[in-house]
Amino acid sequence: MERLQRKGRTPQRGLLLAWIHLAVLWSFAVAKPLFDVLADSPEFFVARGNTSGDVALLAFGLVLIPPTLMLVAEAALFAVPRVRGVLHLVFVGALTTAIAMQVFKSWKAGPGIPLTVVALACGVGAALLYARTEAAPSTLTVLAPAPLLFLFLFLVTSPVADLFKSDADVPVRHDVRASAPVVLIVFDEFSVETLMQPGGGIDAARFPNFSALAKSATWFRNATTVSDHTTDAVPALLSGRFPGPDALPTAAAHPNNLFTLLGGSYSLRNVTEPATDLCPSRLCSQATRPPTFDRLESLGKDLTIVGLHRVLPQRLAAELPAVNQGFGNFAAQGRDAASAGIPGLAFEDRPAQFERFIAGIDGDQPHSLSFIHVLLPHTPWQYLPSGQRYTPPEGEEVPGVDGNGVWTKDPVLPQQALQRELLQMGYVDRLLGRVVRRLRSEGLYDDALLILTADHGISFRPGTSRRTAVATAAPDVLGVPLFLKTPHQREGSVDDRNATTADILPTVADVLGAEPRWATDGTSLLGFPRPPADPVTVSVFPSRRKVSIPFADYVRRRDEEVGAMRFRAGPGTGWAAVYAMGADSDLFGRAVAELPPGPASGMRVTLHHADAYASVDPAGAEVPSFVEGAIGGAPAQRQRIAVAVNGVIEGVASTHRSEGEVRFGALVPAAAFRRGRNEVAVFAITGTGKSRRLRPIS
Length: 698
What we know:
Blueprint: H1 11-40, H2 43-48, H3 52-75, H4 81-105, H5 112-132, H6 135-142, H7 146-157, E1 182-188, H8 208-214, E2 218-220, H9 230-239, H10 258-262, E3 267-272, H11 292-311, H12 314-317, H13 337-340, H14 350-359, E4 368-377, H15 412-441, E5 449-454, H16 474-478, E6 482-485, E7 493-495, H17 504-512, E8 536-540, E9 545-549, H18 551-568, H19 576-579, E10 604-607, E11 626-632, E12 640-645, E13 648-654, E14 656-658, E15 661-667, E16 680-686, E17 693-696
Parallel strand pairs: 1-4, 1-5, 2-7, 3-4
Antiparallel strand pairs: 2-6, 5-6, 8-9, 10-11, 11-15, 12-13, 12-16, 14-15, 16-17
Helix pairs in contact: 1-3, 1-4, 1-7, 1-11, 3-4, 3-7, 4-5, 8-15
């Protein structure tokens, strides 16, 4: 700082130069890297409900506010120039270290301790050069235009610029005759495999409402998505077009879609788009947005986590919430956004979103389009088939998935995730039943065109991607439910053609007699099927490259996984087989007193949320159905675990290693609990057959 005030410079000029230098370093260390991330994923803003004004405020604030705050801290020490100079050098060194860390993290080997030390050395060296030479400060002065250049590139030339395009000029058709109420439900992260049982039918014991719908609708059993990412998949099914390069999920980018096709003739008052924005604002009454400050606060929290992921050493970054599991709300993973106090996100109070959708189905408005895309059974998994909530596992939203979205090769956590997904799908089935009952009570069901589908599926195969439609995960992510009930259809059927979600828009147009005036990649499901030789093609996010597999190969691999899922389940049918999933499933429902006891295991268990069992309401909105904990003194190999509630075995599990601990997690039904205090005991299972024993864990 003293050097900046030499040669006749005034203190004010010295402070201005200090601010310029900090702004330049901050822009290279933080602002530009975040701009690069956001420019590659502009749909992040759309899915969060951020406005173009939010984006502009974020960009200018990100560049200008932090260096200004640093300068304010320096100015507060105006009376002690030496201390002020040291603080300025600390800022220079810290920002240079952040730049160096990102350079080193781009190396294949990662930073590690040695490279972190080198980055710190770079920061110290930069501070010394700044203090002792004229060249370093002069270089930063020459780079003064850099922050404004980064702003310009982000707001004007990157894909983010498309967010500033208005949908006011998007044309709307007015010549479509409103002949039937249209109801389109799009679930999320819903693989058709989880509905099915070996032989190709729907598991009616677990999913009675899906089974009932199939009796009066056409089930396209082999339907597949055309994209493995929500913000591409939903626009594709609404427009009938495959995802294009850099296309945002907005009406301006997709002017030809279901909403603009029907918007001139149909009421669009019951439209819920939590992750996309394809319905022009003049047609769809948008939900009330949270205040600007709240939206920006939420955005700031998420971008802070993204920034720390880029700067911190890998070991420390691994302790942060993951940033690859959704559309934001990273700091509150495992909970609904509403419970975290973070507004305006796609995950906010998903049951309430669906409640509003059901209430919006109105028999007095027969010429209406009711549309909802709801992030269910998408993570966070926290619902039982009854609709009751349980507290998810501590830590990551999806335990067992690494930063690249790939499952661990240890099958314990992928199987636990499948178990939780199936239970949450039971809740989805319950919601479907309520929709059908609402349509019937409003006198709309017979006349309605009802379509139910999902944006993409999900895979639970150990060692493979959870959500990317490549390699062994492809059939799981590709396969989605697709049910079509045309007006006055009374007999259900199964259609095994090669159908895709891009066929939905052409089918709606065909049923309503409204020919689209744009080229579609999909075709009407009422017409001739595709040739069996046509492959299944999917756009893989984020590259949007097209990947194809033979249709017959997809069906075969999908059916194999259906059989494998059933094999992993417990005996019998219904939900008992899901709660009992895994080894020793035959113990489910048996009294501990009936089973041969073994000696004490010598292990110790620490139950998470142990106080929740002191006062339970089995019929309440929230029940402690996920029993988890850490086990001390466990053997190195996997340990089989039984969980007893009030003397009856209600859950079985296997241990896994997580965050340096041996842990277990077992789901138990709400009916296992009695009102008030409940006794939960954990046992180690040893032996097999007649030699199997339950050994208490203290």
